[in-house]
Structure formats: structure tokens, C-alpha cells
Design goal:
By secondary structure, the protein is α+β, with helices and mostly antiparallel strands. An eight-stranded mixed beta sheet has the order 29-30-32-31-33-34-35-36, with helices on both faces. A hairpin with a 7-residue loop joins strand 18 (225-230) and strand 19. The longest helix is centred in the last third of the chain and has 19 residues, at 610-628. The two termini are 24 Å apart.
Length: 635
């Protein structure tokens, strides 16, 4: 039975996996002459710009030394670059403008409203120099639709939210549409006449089929329709075109086995399932996701480009950008052992070159492969999962960490996972399970999670542990559970509902009490909970449902905890507030039970600053080694 990684595999320091990349997130300018990317400046990721064709020195064009920038946008006028930023994880997002022609000019906040947040930010090819955004500066509970003039900063309100609108759609021709959520869970799309206060119904969707809303949902360039992900009358999510005049739906594209890759709904830094021509906005490709990603080209030119791009790496094509001509491309690849390796490709010449590896110190040959596996649940569901085994160790009787994804309306997928690599490097088997309620495996699998928090959703995790033990990979007495957000809730459920299964547990910003969790989410979010949390877990304002929710909450079984527990929390978390972690820690300490508790006051729901991630995973490394019997070498 292996207790440590053999010396032939170099031991990775936590900093090597969780420190800032040297470069990341590259994209090309519309005119094809420059590229922007993220790189450290004063220990924070900022946006840098450099020439694509010459060796002129790169220039840092943003100057945030408090919190890393992760999302930026080229504008149609390459003078301007926009980026998004919040404050210490509070998720109050603002849009900032940078003047690339004036290196001395400071960034301009285009949404300078304290306490407000921007959602649904969108640049449109049909309205050059403009951008659409949803903003709650007038009323924190309601998002109005604005158009911003990028050059002048002028904000124009296009629609004032009357109180029930969850999202707006604005066509190139100036027509306005509203998405509303009914109290019985229907998602309704209507044409909106703001002056007359009237609406014309276009179509409706069953909210229970779309816990995070209908995604994608994007206006066609001619403004007469919407491309959207639909599972109406089917199990898999397909791409359809909705005619805004008639409500008629027409199939655009589908895959016989996979659904659309909609992970960007949860993590906006991931690519959209829709690949559009930069100049015209027309659809040229669609992303699907099974065990691996698949792109179906819808345009002959893009099909030829994609064929050549795919030869550059054995990973999956990730972030893509091209110039207005569609000839010059930058592509980053999703890969389990070569994270986000990025290339430049010129379709005119057929030539390509490596631009960078974000983590050049990581040798792909010393990282562990992530292998898709399928586990059958006790009631016959196929649980599509991923197994990462340590290199150089006999894959038998290993200590194992069950790594649980958040959401729960998200999914694990193939690619580089720094946590899985750290754990595998230390000698653990790592198992990531797409339990029922996860997205991307069909409508029936998703809805099988309704009412099953701490029930069949957790049974799936236990079945996965049993599978790993029965297959010989894992030592039953040395299995830990580790997760963030919903995964943190699952980690707490693991040690309260099944206290004999796990030898250690790490909860990262997880829910300890479903009732208090849903009562403390931001008020502007609560109307959107009808088809997700209220449907799957319950409505805390209904006494009968609240009682059932409490019974499915770890806090109600805190006396069952006898497993070593580590809790990590962001002090500015607005989704799972700090009180969720406080109450489980306080209850344990009141019993005299030791629990490790780490709070980072300048973080929110998930950590961004590298030093905080490094602190957390150093502590997690020590904690797991202590309780799962791995030798802990000094770094």
C-alpha cells in the first residue's frame, strides 16, 4: 500500500500550482496587429498589450495592485480596452475603460455607482462604439437596461425595470424584449413597449428545465431572432433559433450524444458555446461537451481554420479570438497536463507559433493524466466521472480524495485541475463525480436531483467511493472529501450524514444550513431562485419546507461529526455568507471538538489573490497528510 510518491516524481510546491501564471488569457485585436493578455504586475494579474509581429516591449495597460483582473474586452475601435472588476470579492462588478493611445491616462469607471453591480455586459457588432449592460444603480433589487457610449462614457437608459424583469434583450433595430419569471416557475419572453407599459408574449419555457435560465440566449445579427439552448421536447440541450415575430423555433444545430457546453453560465471566463464571426456576428461554430469537448463548425472557412488549429495540441480547443478578417487567430487549449498552452495561427500562410505556456515550470510529463470513468449508481444512473491517479505509484489501495464540484448546477470536465494535480502529486487518487443534478448530461439527469440534497445526490458520491474501493484504487479507511460552495455543503453532509465513510473533510465556503443560506442571499437574486434552489431544496419562507430543509442541513446533525474537519471561508462572500461557516465551527468548538478554520477577509465566494490560495492549499496539504497518512515533506 503506497503512502508516498516515489522520488522519481518531483514534488511540486503549492506555489508552483497556485501562483500566478506568467501569462494567460490572450486575445488578438480586431485589426490583428496586437494581442492582449493577463500577466502579473505588483503580484496581481493585469492586462498587458504587445505587438503580434514585432519584438517591441509589452506594456501593462491596467494598474490594479489590489485584486487580479480576470476579464477584459477589446472594442471595435482598438483605441479602447474594457475590463471588469469587483472589490475584494464582493461581486459588485464595474466596467472600466482604458485608453491605449494615452499610456498616462488612468482607467475610467464607466459605471461609477457605489454599491451597484453590472450584469449582462455585451458588445454588439451592430452598434459600433456601444455596449449594453444591466445595472441596478437606481434600485438595488432591479436591473435596468443601459447602453454606454464607450468613447464618451455616456450612459443611456433603454428600459427601466418595472419590478419583475429578470433580463432584457435589445435588438439592432431598437426593439426591446423582456424575460420574466412567473411565480409558478415559467420563464416568459415578451416584446416590451416601455412607453405604453404593454407587452406582447413571444414564448415561454418551463423553468424547472432551466435552473440557471435559458442559456445561451443571444440575438441574431439581423435582430429578427434569438439563438438559444433548448431542451424542449428533448433530453439534450440543442441550439435553436427563435423567431421573435412568430415565436417559431427552428433547429440550428445539435449533437446525437452531447448537449451544448454551457459551463460559461457558471464561470463566465470559460468560452461561450457559440462561436461567432468577429466582424459580422454570424454563427460559425458550436461547442458541445461529453467526456471531452467537441466543436461543430457551421462555416466552411472556420472548418478549415479549426482543422489546422486542432493539429497544434492534443488538448481541446479553448479560448479563440481572431481579427476582423478571420485570418489571424490566437487559440488556448484545454489540456489535463499542459494547461492553456497558447498559439498564434495565420490562416493566410498556414504558419503557427507557440506564444506561451502559462506555467512553463510545470513539465507535462510529471503531471497526472485525468481519465474519464463511468460509475453506476445504486439505482442505475450513469455517473460520468474523472479519475486522476498519482504517477509512479501502484494504483492499488491508495489514499483518495473525493473532490466535489460546486453549483450544484455545474459539472466536472476534462482539463487541468490544479487541486487534482496537487493531490495526485502527493500520492492521492482523486475522484471527481458528476452526481445527479449536475448539468450537461441531459434534462432527466439534471431533474433527478430535485429534492435530493443530502439524499440521492449524496448517495451518488458514496456509490463512487464504493466503486473506487471495489475497483482496488482506494483504501476505504483513507478517503477524504473536499469541495467548495455546493461541494463544501457536500463535504459537510459527508461527515454528518455518513460519518463513518470519510477520514477527513475540507469545506470551502460551503452551506451548513439551507434555511439561513437562502435567507441571506442578496435580495436581487431571490426572484431567480424559483427554478433552482427553491425547487431543488425548498422555500425557507414555507414552514413545512423549512423544516425539511433544516433536516437536510449539516447543522442539524453537527453532533454526528467525529471526522477531522477543515473550514475555509471568504469574509466578503455574498453568496454563502461567513455566518454559514461560523455556525458550524462555533457548534463544534462548543462541544470541544477541534476544527481548523481559515478566513480571508479580502476574498469572496472563491479566492482570487494568489497568496490566499497558496495559504489555503498549504494548510489543506498538511491537513490531509496528517489524517490520511501521507508523509509530509518540507517544501
Amino acid at each position: 500500500m503506497s503512502t508516498s510518491v516515489p522520488h522519481v516524481v518531483p514534488r511540486l510546491a503549492v506555489e508552483e500550482l497556485f501562483g500566478a501564471p506568467v501569462r494567460a488569457g490572450a486575445s488578438i485585436s480586431p485589426d490583428g496587429t496586437r494581442m492582449a493578455y493577463l500577466a502579473p504586475w505588483r503580484d496581481r494579474l493585469n492586462v498587458w498589450v504587445e505587438s503580434v509581429d514585432s519584438d517591441t516591449e509589452a506594456r501593462c495597460v491596467t494598474a490594479d495592485d489590489n485584486r487580479s483582473v480576470h476579464t477584459y474586452h477589446w472594442c471595435d475601435d482598438p483605441r479602447w480596452l474594457l475590463y471588469e472588476q469587483d472589490g475584494d470579492g464582493d461581486e459588485r462588478w464595474h466596467i472600466y475603460r482604458v485608453d491605449l493611445e494615452d499610456p498616462e491616462a488612468k482607467a475610467v469607471d464607466l459605471t461609477p455607482f457605489p454599491g451597484a453591480t453590472v450584469t449582462g455586459f455585451e458588445l454588439s457588432v451592430s452598434r459600433p462604439g456601444k455596449a449594453l449592460l444591466h445595472l441596478n444603480s437606481r434600485n438595488p433589487l432591479e436591473f435596468d437596461l443601459y447602453e454606454v457610449d464607450i468613447a464618451t462614457g455616456e450612459l443611456t437608459m433603454l428600459a427601466e425595470n418595472p419590478g419583475q424583469v429578470a433580463g432584457w434583450l435589445y435588438t439592432p433595430g431598437g426593439d426591446l424584449y423582456a424575460l420574466t419569471l412567473s411565480t409558478d416557475g415559467l420563464i416568459e419572453l415578451s416584446q416590451w413597449d416601455a412607453q405604453r407599459g404593454k407587452s406582447r408574449p413571444v414564448t415561454t419555457f418551463e423553468g424547472a428545465d432551466y435552473p440557471l435560465g435559458v442559456q445561451p440566449f443571444r440575438t441574431t445579427p439581423d435582430g429578427t431572432g434569438v439563438w438559444l439552448g433548448s431542451n424542449r421536447d428533448t433530453d439534450r440541450t440543442r441550439l435553436i433559433r427563435l423567431d421573435l415575430a412568430t415565436g417559431e423555433e427552428t433547429l440550428v444545430d445539435s449533437h446525437p450524444e452531447f448537449g451544448l457546453d454551457t459551463r460559461s453560465v457558471v464561470f463566465p471566463t470559460l468560452p461561450s458555446p457559440l462561436i461567432q464571426d468577429r466582424r459580422t456576428g454570424e454563427l460559425i461554430g458550436v461547442r458541445y461537451l461529453g467526456e471531452r469537448q467537441l466543436i461543430q463548425p457551421l462555416d466552411p472557412h472556420f472548418a478549415a481554420v479549426l482543422e489546422n488549429l486542432s493539429k497544434l495540441s492534443d488538448g481541446d480547443v479553448g479560448h479563440l479570438s481572431c481579427d476582423d478578417s478571420g485570418q489571424r487567430w490566437i487559440v488556448g487549449f484545454t489540456h489535463d497536463r499542459d494547461p492553456a498552452v497558447t498559439y498564434f495561427y495565420d490562416h493566410t500562410t498556414g504558419r503557427s507559433r507557440l506564444l506561451f505556456r502559462p506555467y512553463p515550470h510545470l513539465d507535462p510529463d510529471t503531471l497526472a493524466p485525468m481519465t474519464p470513468v463511468t460509475i453506476t449508481s445504486r439505482d442505475g444512473l450513469a455517473l460520468h466521472s474523472y479519475l486522476t491517479l498519482p504517477l509512479g505509484a501502484e494504483p492499488s489501495g491508495l489514499p483518495m480524495v473525493l473532490l466535489v464540484h460546486g453549483g450544484p448546477w455545474h459539472r466536472d470536465s476534462w482539463g487541468f485541475d490544479a487541486v487534482a494535480q496537487l493531490l495526485a502529486n502527493r500520492g492521492y487518487a482523486v475522484l471527481q463525480v458528476n452526481f445527479r443534478g449536475s448539468t450537461g448530461f441531459g434534462k432527466a439527469f439534471l431533474k433527478a436531483g430535485i429534492g435530493e440534497l443530502a439524499g440521492k445526490m449524496h448517495d451518488d458520491l458514496i456509490d463512487a467511493v464504493d466503486w473506487a474501493v471495489d475497483e482496488g484504487y482506494a483504501d476505504r479507511d483513507r478517503v477524504a472529501i473536499f469541495g467548495g460552495s455546493y461541494g463544501g455543503y457536500a463535504a459537510l453532509v459527508g461527515v454528518t450524514f455518513t460519518p463513518d465513510v470519510f477520514a477527513a473533510s475540507i469545506d470551502f465556503c460551503g452551506i451548513s444550513n439551507l434555511v439561513t443560506f437562502l435567507r441571506t442571499v442578496p435580495d436581487f437574486v431571490k426572484p431567480q431562485l424559483i427554478s433552482n434552489w427553491y425547487l431543488f431544496a425548498g422555500d425557507p419562507d414555507d414552514p413545512e419546507q423549512a423544516a425539511r430543509m433544516l433536516a437536510r442541513s449539516p447543522i442539524s446533525r453537527v453532533d454526528e461529526i467525529r471526522t477531522p474537519l477543515m473550514v475555509v471561508q471568504g469574509g466578503n462572500d455574498i453568496r454563502v455568507v461567513k455566518a454559514e461557516s461560523d455556525q458550524i465551527v462555533d457548534a463544534l468548538r462548543a462541544r470541544g471538538v477541534e476544527v481548523e478554520y481559515m478566513v480571508k477577509d479580502n476574498e469572496g465566494h472563491g479566492f482570487v489573490n494568489p497568496e490566499n490560495n497558496i495559504d489555503m492549499f498549504r494548510a489543506a496539504d498538511r491537513f490531509l497528510a496528517r489524517h490520511l497518512g501521507i508523509r509530509q515533506d518540507a517544501e
